Amino acid sequence: MAHWAEIGENNTVVRVLVGDNNDPNGDEGYQWLIDNLGGRWIKTSYNARNGKRVNPVTNEMTDEPALRAHFAGIGFMYLENLDIFMPPKEYPSWILDTTDYTWVAPVPRPDSGFWYWDEDTLSWKERDKQ
Q: Cα 111 to the chain's mean position, in Å?
């Protein structure tokens, strides 16, 4: 099955629908979406996570690149310049790591302990152990 993400204002995903692989047009339902729903639709892959393809049988990450980095979800952004879908940033200061297509803090998280990100100070704060 093909999955399609509708792209709305500001390149935000507004819905994701399933197309038909047996569509007589041979386009996995793309033309049906355009003719019946309008809008802008971009194909997404259910087996995409962090830039890698996930084996649908074992649910394990493979070394194969994934179509558009992530399976699109409502609220995801379509980054047209990279042709990828990205989940919303957790914090405005975080930046895109194009190695595994995740958002990362501008400062590396300490290795040990329990930490949380403080956007006001742009730093990691140690969480109290309880």
A: 26
10-29 exposure pattern, b = at least 16 Cβ within 10 A, e = fewer: eeebeebeebeeeeeeeebb
**Rounded CA separation 73/15 (Å):** 7
Q: What is the distance between the terminal CA atoms of the chain, rounded to a whole angstrom?
A: 47
The pTM of this model reads 0.85
pLDDT digits (tens, 9 = 90+) for 28-84: 889 999 999 999 999 999 999 999 999 999 999 999 999 999 999 999 999 999 999
Pairing of strands 48-49, 61-65: unpaired
The 3-state DSSP class for residue 22 equals: coil
In the chain, DSSP assigns E strands to: 3-7, 13-18, 40-44, 48-49, 52-54, 61-65, 77-79, 84-86, 95-97, 102-104, 115-118, 123-126
Residue pair 44/72 in contact (Cβ under 8 Å)? The answer is: yes
